[in-house]
Structure formats: C-alpha cells, structure tokens
Specification:
Elements lengths: L3 E3 H11 L9 H13 L26 H14 L2 H19 L6 H4 L8 H26 L2 E3 L1
Parallel strand pairs: 1-2
Length: about 150
Amino acid sequence: MRDRVSISAVESAAKANNRPGPDHMNCGESVIAALWDAFEPDFPRSVVSMGAGMGKGVGGSGCICGALAGGVAFLGLMLETKERTKPVAAELHDAFCGGTGKHTPCCRILTRGLEWTSTERIAQCQAHCALAAAETARILCRELDIQLES
C-alpha cells in the first residue's frame, strides 16, 4: 500500500473513469478504481467489478448514488470491520450529501430534470464521483495514518 495519496489525482481519476466511451465505468466502478489506484492496497484490482451494479442509482433503481456506494464499499474493504467502517461510512454519507448541494444520496433526486445522456448530467455525475472518491480518500488517509497530498 502507498504511504502517500494525492486527493487531486483521486478526483481526476474518478472523473476520467466515468467519461462516456468504450472504457466507461459507472459511478461505483469509477470511485472504486480511482481509490484502488491511489492506495494500491493488498487485494486485487478486480474488486472494481463489485461496483458493476451500482450505476444509475444501484442497479438502475435511482436510489443511492453509486459513487457514494462505491466509496462506502471501499471503506469496508480497507478498514475490514463494522466497528471501524460504520462511523466513517456515516461521515462519508454526510460529507457527500453536503457536497452535492442537494443534501441527499438519492440518484433520482441528484439527476432530476437532467437528460441522462446530456453533457450537464455527465459532468454532474463526474463531479459526484470526484467528491465521493476524494472524501473517501481523506477518511482513509486519516484512519490509516497515510500522508495526504492536496
């Protein structure tokens, strides 16, 4: 595992992973991949696939944002116990909801009024991926005593 993590690199990777095109990752995959690349933990990068069902509000349901779900899943992988993960997952939830400006984790509310293929919706979702990944990285750096770079 790395001993330094760059928040700006995590944000950039999360946005880039979620861009349209042949290498597109959904929001959950985008966040997990960005975090794995930043931390290089002692488990395989194939864990990115656990985010496969998180897109468009977990399974396309429009419920919890996949970016937030991906961050919570990565916290659990890294911290390994409910006792360590649950309080920081709540912290991530609150930071994400506050950071979106809409104070909700609900994809259907976050994307309300936006055409799914519009550049505005894509940019918004990329920003939410960056937000979830950055906040998750900040929490993990604190909890694992890893140096944080801006």
